[in-house]
Amino acid sequence: MSAPILSVRGVERRYGARIGCTGVGFDLWPGEVLGIVGESGSGKSTLLSCLAGLQRPDAGSVTYDGRDVLALPETERRRLARTEWAYVHQHARDGLRMGVSAGANVGERLMATGAGHYGDIRAAATDWLGRVEIAADRIDDRPTAFSGGMQQRLQIARNLVTGPRLVFMDEPTGGLDVSVQARLLDLLRGLVRDMGLSVVIVTHDLAVVRLLADRLMVMKSGRVVEQGLTDQVLDDPQHAYTQLLVSSVLQV
Ligand SMILES: Nc1ncnc2c1ncn2[C@@H]1O[C@H](COP(=O)(O)OP(=O)(O)OP(=O)(O)O)[C@@H](O)[C@H]1O
After folding, report:
1. Tell me: the pLDDT tens digits for 47-77?
2. Which residues form the ABC transporter domain (predicted)?
3. Which protein residue has the closest C-alpha to ligand 1 atom 31?
4. CA-closest residue to ligand 1 atom 2
5. How far is the C-alpha of 55 from the C-alpha of 28, rounded, in Å?
6. Residue 219 falls within a domain, yes or no?
């Protein structure tokens, strides 16, 4: 029997009188993908940043691998953030260093975990560019010379090169063309499966969670209104808000 990799209880974050999220609780099991869906303003990003320790909740607990995330010293949280955790931002520029080459973007994450041999780092960077379908001859180009989809794939390589255990993703396919989204989703699904990643993915796109998530949590106005197995929630939504979300997609 394994233990949850992430346990969340009663998480609340307020912005003055406004609720960011409240009363959120779930367990994430190793190798599981949890999707968090809800319309804009429902509290998804607030929750994700609380889970990753980027914002401090006003109440509740977040336990990673048996450790109280909110009590971690900042140096330890940062160490986890560059080794065992990864955070894929919606906008690739928030997760990349735009002023250095693609190879350096991937390689410097390895260096941050202790790798020091230039040849090994470059070989690993080349390998990872290949895994995210970026041609090896683009290794010395800066991300500014890449398309939006390529930048997002590079951000994924930078995040996954260190072999993290827990990955947070905030709208990873947002703002991309539909065909680019489909390719990225396919790639993500393969990587998640091959690496056995535990993932919390936030999106407003039900097609993304249908493809990637084992379990689904539906948020509205900062609260979880429904959760369950993805197919169950999408095929037989119980809450009126989830029914609305599902039917609005079907009508498109
Ligand atoms: N920095 C902030 N200051 C004040 N209020 C905020 C801040 N960030 C979020 N909020 C509020 O908290 C609530 C939840 O916002 P949040 O961004 O988490 O939702 P979301 O579901 O991620 O939306 P989106 O999909 O548009 O990013 C909203 O009412 C929002 O206005």
Report:
1. 999 999 889 999 999 999 999 999 999 999 9
2. 6-246
3. 41
4. 15
5. 20
6. yes
Is 168 found in the same domain as 75?
yes
Q: Which CATH number is 67's domain given? A: 3.40.50.300
Q: Of the residues 42, 206, 220, 223, which should be mutated to test ligand 1's pocket, given the most ligand atoms within 8 Å of the CB?
A: 42
Identify whether residues 175 and 76 lie together within a single domain: yes
Pair 16, 123 in one domain:
no
Residues 102 and 227 in one domain: no
Q: Is residue 89 part of a domain?
A: no
My answer on whether 157 and 209 are in the same domain is no
CA-closest residue to ligand 1 atom 4: 15
Work out the angle at residue 142's Cα, subtended by the Cα atoms of residues 140 and 147, and round it to the nearest 5 degrees.
Answer: 115
Query: What tokens were used for 108?
Result: 């410097």
- Interval 150-190: pLDDT, tens: 999 999 999 999 999 999 999 998 888 888 888 889 999 99
Domain count within the chain: 2
Identify the residues whose C-beta falls under 6 Å from ligand 1. 15, 18, 20, 38, 40-46, 204
